[in-house]
Amino acid sequence: MRSRRGVLGEGARIVWRRQRVLWWAFAVNLLLALLGTIPTAAALGKILDRSLASGALVDRFDVPTFAELAMSPARPFHVASAALFPLLFFAFMLFFEGGVLTVYRADRKFTTAEFFEACGRFFWRFFRLLILFLIAIVPVLIFNRVTKSWSDRLAVDSPNALLGFWVQVVTTLIALLLLMAVRLWFDMAQARIVVEDERAVRKALWPALKLTLRRFPWLFGMYFEISLAAWAGLVASFWVWVKWVRPEWVGVTFLLTQGFLLFWLGTRFWQRASEIVWYLRHAAPPSNNIP
Amino acid sequence: MTEVRLGGTRGTGTDAGWDPKHFGAIEVLSFAVSGMGELTKQIQFVQPDDGNTDDHTVFQVRLPKPVLPGEHVEFRIRFHDHLPEVVARTGYKRDFFIVAQWFPKVGVWWHDGWNCHQFHSTSEFFADFGTYVVRVTVPANYVLGATGDVTAIQTNPNGTKTVTFQGEDIHDFSWTASPDFHLIEDSWQGSAGEVKIHLLMSPGHLRQAGRYLQSLKGTLAMFDRWYGPYPYDRITLVDPPNGVGEAGGMEYPTLITGGSTWWEPKGLRDIEIVTEHEFGHQYWYGMVATNEFEEAWMDEGINSYTEAKIMDALYGKGKSAIDFLGATASDADFLRVEYLLLPDTDPMTHYAYRFMNSQAYGGITYGKTATVLLTLEGLIGEETMRRAMQTYFLRYRFTHPTGEDFLKTIEEVSGRDLRWYFDQAVYGTNILDYEILDLRSDRADWYERYPPLTKQGETLYKDTVVVHRKGDFVFPVEVEMRFDDGTGVREQWDGRDRWTRFTYLKKAKLLSAEVDPAHKVRLDKDLFNNSLTAETDRRATRKLSTYWLFVWQFAAQLLAWAV
Fold first, then answer.
1. B211-244 per-position pLDDT tens digit
2. How many domains does chain B have?
């Protein structure tokens, strides 16, 4: 436990010391979302900005008013344009991740050129890894689908109202933990690719799996603790928002949500940094140099 | 099924396919008439609604001799029931039974003819009043609930029991049984005497029993106070078990079904709304007993209106449906949203099975009728409307009135000719939509080459507001103008022209103009264009944009977890 705390602590310190990459990722996340929000904000503005009826959405959140707004012929909520943005961010992170891991592995300040050179170097390798990851999670998704239909059937067929619900909760948790285990394995493969400049992506997966399985409880516990912190942050932010933020305090809501999103993104970076630290301490050859 | 496939169904979808487990039927084995003998072979299926010869839901039998005035005749009908797995509020699931629409019903002799419609996917029913004596035999461990009062319980040697129920002045009979029901007894004292409350709770939902009782007693009290006494001495409220949502939210004489889940928080008032709604049917469906095939709005619609009124009275205006985590909603507003989904496909007076589809049936019969009556209330006043509803109930209970009887009662009590409103709102499909098209404040001396500097309170303005009737529904409206010196003015407009202009010469600029400032005209299709302000206020836009931004940022981060 003590050594896990050490790795987690060192991971957190690296995220803190190299916070520039986190801020960049967050800024891109925000910027792209802002772009995706512009059409909706413009359409909402046309309906709401000069209407007294908008008051029902300012000092409270009146659900029927919101429903009427969503149903209005102008269709102000532009889902298609907004949905494009997460895909762009996904592509961005696929590119960005190689640079982030290289920075964490070296734990020093990179020039812009160095950083983007690292991003570019690992992009295709991470792209191939992504395809393998999508294949690897198929059994988990099938498990989730099967157990979902099972719990749905129980929810309807069982006289016990709670049975279906609890089966759903437990199986969803299992599916999430399985997903996290697969992610842990592929993060390990990414760490290996970056630390050892491994070019054969499929070849990197096997030792990564062996490494992951060899210290699975330890590594899984590390990821689990960070995930727990992320979810606790979500619950705490929601609680603060419901309890303390008045409906008309839009600025505070904005700051709170952005603070939470930065924290959430930070916990993912924390997992990556901790895994790099662990890999360097326990798996990397001693002669390994910064690429 | 043809109707279901054409226009959907009101259920949750279990009957949308051809799953045999959802088939139900009543098979008439024999039909005899005292003094006239066995007439089973005289049974002839008829299709008064659509001529579909495959439809065997209505039959007629011509008697060998007429029944003369003052004579009576006795029928003996043997039939066999095939219950479906619960669908459309009847059937079984595991060991739970809700047994409704389970016996052959006699048509209603109404307006000098037999009124008897086929079974339709969207329609409810119509039957005449009578006395029902029903003996139900079930395993001894079953808990029973039914229309009417228990008059006898007999334990049988084969491990069963036979319970006899009797109900008077009712037009239908249904019953429910389950070994798992938890019976909660309570009572309520009304102006017509004590009413026993039997709440049959499913074990998984026991924690919601208090909400059922609070809503039911509150509703009993409000109906008693506003519309008239509840004359029966019992009401049975059934909480269907898990997975039997299709049995929930239905009314039968002195027996109603609710619907709950173990987790539903108090701020989400589904349990209360359904309980209120189904009890309200005891008045409009149960006692007034209108023809639901031909004038569905007379029951479901009027009942939705009283539901909105009573939910507001019991749980507070603006939050009678939702008051949870900062989100609010009133029941009346939800009914309005239901109406807005398909506002102009059919008039309210269409036969239930002739609406464009089930969504139009639901939206217009429930949502539009409630909204039409709430708007009417704004027109004639809340107190007058309440007196009209009370007069209608007390005058027409146990008589099967028509829509015209209802509308004439409102005109009579209000002392106003409201035909212009009924023609558009009840019989028509007109859309009501007013907007403030333009609002401007021009300096009165705009033509001066060198006008004096603008000074608040001294500069003279020509203030202009243009109001536009976008829809084809003509309705007199009030328009309120607010000025920057703190004053305001309210104008009346009959709405007959497509637009009108209000002009003022004032030492103040216009701040805002609003059609229907008291928010009485709930039929207005678009409330956002009812007002226009001189200045923009971006707070609502910013708030919603912030939520929207967060949702997509978070979604993006979750997606990026895969890399």
1. 999 999 999 999 999 999 999 999 999 999 988 8
2. 2
